[in-house]
Design goal:
The protein has about 190 residues and is an alpha+beta fold. The chain has five helices and ten strands. It has one domain: Trna Endonuclease, Chain: A, domain 1 (3-Layer(aba) Sandwich), CATH 3.40.1350.10. Strands 1-4-5-7-8-10 form a six-stranded mixed β-sheet, sandwiched between helices. A two-stranded antiparallel ribbon has the order 2-3. It has a two-stranded antiparallel ribbon with strand order 6-9. β2 and β3 form a beta hairpin.
Length: about 190
């Protein structure tokens, strides 16, 4: 688009998959701040472990990381404590109207969910189906059972609606997953 009396051209940035899921994470973070402020739970996003290789120091107050790499594969996105129970979960967004591809969750994340379940944690996946503008809580055990059955390479939307739990939204808690956790996990 050319602006009047100017040679500047606006070029829409190419969309990447690197920030996909950020609106769901933003909503979860807002809900988590509400839960913490109201002493309901302590849940935080886990930082991604990186090794810094190169830092540019134009001046001390403006240090900038210019090269880094992931140390080890990360586990899941969030963990914390709710009503005396450890909770651990992954947050994913999906644009498909028909299914959620298993390729969106890495094998090390599935192993991690299995590990925390084996030790008695409450583990789940929050899945935002953007085409339907719906958020679902899916118990990790149900997800893993279907995944490990090897019958498909994705979760069909019908399965998500049947086995998942619809998460309500409000202004203060745009992803109010704790209401579902309390109900589903009998807390």
């Amino acid at each position: 688009m050319k602006y009047p009396n100017s040679n500047k051209v606006y070029v829409k940035p190419k969309e990447t998959t690197s920030n996909r899921g950020m609106s769901l994470e933003d909503d979860i973070n807002v809900s988590n701040r509400y839960y913490l402020a109201h002493e309901m739970a302590v849940v935080h996003k886990k930082p991604t472990p990186i090794t810094i290789v190169k830092v540019d120091y134009p001046k001390r107050s403006a240090a900038k990381i210019t090269e880094a790499y992931f140390k080890v594969p990360s586990t899941t996105d969030y963990n914390g404590i709710y009503l005396g129970k450890y909770i651990d979960f992954e947050a994913k967004e999906c644009e498909s109207r028909t299914s959620f591809p298993f390729s969106s969750i890495h094998p090390h994340q599935i192993r991690h969910l299995k590990d925390v379940l084996r030790h008695g944690a409450i583990a789940f996946i929050i899945l935002r189906m953007t085409s339907y503008d719906k958020d679902f809580l899916i118990r990790a055990g149900d997800f893993i059972d279907f995944h490990d059955s090897g019958t498909r390479k994705s979760l069909p939307y019908e399965w998500i609606e049947e086995k998942g739990f619809l998460i309500n939204r409000s202004y203060q808690r745009p992803c109010d997953y704790l209401a579902i956790v309390k109900e589903v996990f009998d807390l």
